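Running this now, will post back.
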Amino acid sequence: MWKKICDSQDLISYQKRSKQGESRIEARLSDNAWSIYKIHRSAKKDQHVQEYKAEQRKDALKIIEQLKQEKPSPQIEKYAYQDALGIKLQREFKEYDVEKWSFMIHNDPHVNIVFVRFAEHIEADIILNSKYRMIQRKILDHLVEVLRLNESPQLRITVYYYSDKHHTEKHHAYLFGGVELS
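Update: finished.
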């Protein structure tokens, strides 16, 4: 059951707690427009944020009512995925415009990381163990597909390699419309 926390001229807030975690809906008036946020925090401390905009208070209230009726998304919990390549992908956190994912390949104890930033174009930084250099193309293609990064016409991927020898390298790959430019 949603509990009203605040209802003022410039702030509307509701909260709901369950054994899976806590959800909060906040609408704030700023610069004559309403920003509405639905924030999910799971019991495991993962966070998922949705953002909406409205011009008038009545429109913000309609959006809030719709958000209160939504069923919890399965993506609120930590997203885990394993595929034929043996890549086990897990979301670590999601904020307004940044996501962090970790992944292992064939249950290897070395953890690889992906940071995705959403702006005018999507930027992804991938920290990859150097022993996977030979299958880097397959890994990148797969991550782009699974994380739906191919939905952006402009995507910039930077791959950083690490090894147990404490030596790092950087490789740039630019994807524009599915064409890689190195």
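The first strand starts at residue 3 and ends at 7. More later if anyone needs it.
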